[in-house]
Amino acid sequence: MSPKILGILEGERQKYPVMWSPSTPTVDEIERAERSMGVHFVDDYRDFLVRFGAGIVGSQTVIGLGRAEAMGNHETSVVVATKRFQAENWPGVVGWYVISVDGRGNPVGIDPSGSIYISDHDLHRVDRICDSFEEWIEKKCLKLKK
Predict the structure, then answer these.
(1) Which of 1, 25, 118, 143 could bridge 65 with an S-S bond, Cβ 3.0-4.6 Å?
(2) % of residues, the chain, pLDDT over 70
């Protein structure tokens, strides 16, 4: 991710520590998570995990490997969230890893190409919402304009 975005995220973590995981995963833990789901995390998401673990960015929960106190006990990891939505046969989630759940309970995930999608149960469709994790963080979470 760009130094600008990383700086903003770090500033948010310092101002609101309860919104961020108190610990970050090791490279081994990240690789185990990838293997357990049969995916490879895109570089920007992997960088987010290494630096932050998980957190709430703007109004969006970013599920990772760790849990912020403010996140509650739901979707405790990317592995748990992904496996739950896949087991429930949500449209489009096969091949994704689920990185967020919107306010209506819809999973937001990253596909193998690195694009961000949402599976909307109200509209009964899957929509591509961003080209990359960094764009999603920037536009949807931080609501920054380029």
Answers:
(1) 25
(2) 97
In a domain, 93, yes or no: yes
Q: What is the pLDDT of residues 127-146, one digit of tens each?
A: 999 999 999 999 887 886 55
Q: What is the tally of structural domains in the chain?
A: 1
Is the distance from CB of 62 to CB of 45 less than 8 angstroms?
A: no
Under 8 Å between Cβ of 20 and 52: yes
Q: Which of 99, 95, 51 is nearest to 78 (CA)?
A: 99
Per the domain annotation, does 146 fall within a domain?
no
- pLDDT tens digits for 43-62? 999 999 999 999 999 889 99
Q: SS3 of 115, please?
A: coil
DSSP state of 65: B
